[in-house]
């Protein structure tokens, strides 16, 4: 690894797929993985929160309706899961030159907790950077869905099929509109 201006440069590449629930991130991640492997690349596909045993435990805690988490506690749990996932799964693979494609990363916390829950974006940005261990995505794709209600139905159906609870899918429509607008703002302000 090489360090330049506070950013760690890796041999591999980190690709992040983002968007509101039900936008097709996981499907696209899997299609990209198959395509890249077909072209001879070594590829790892993961997800946030989760993608690593400890992070998967945190994921279960975050997605359950059993607890009414304070938003700040929720942010810290997402960041803890991210830090563990990055340290144990992503960074070692990037150091080996593997392409890592992940379903969600820092823009999710910004969109869901920052815009959706109306938390302080500047504080989330600091925590996001810290949890990423100064590693940044080489490419972030934000998938946008105009029909929010259809996306929510798709997400709920997928969760039922894999028997995974996700409290965010059942949040009120206004929350999902704020999340979508958050992603649109992230895309607007991070154009390159």
- Using only CA atoms, what is the Rg? 16 Å
**Major sheet summary line:** 4 strands, parallel
Please count the beta strands (DSSP E, at least 2 residues each). 6
User: DSSP helix count?
Assistant: 7
What coarse outline follows from CA principal-axis ratios? globular
Task: Briefly summarize what is shown.
This protein has seven helices and six strands. The protein is an alpha/beta fold.
How would you portray this structure in words?
With 192 residues, this protein is an alpha/beta fold. The chain contains seven helices and six strands, in the order βββαβααβααβαα. Helices cover 55% and strands 13% of the residues. A hairpin with a 2-residue loop joins β1 and β2. α2 packs antiparallel against α3 and α4 runs antiparallel to α5. It is globular and about 45 Å long.
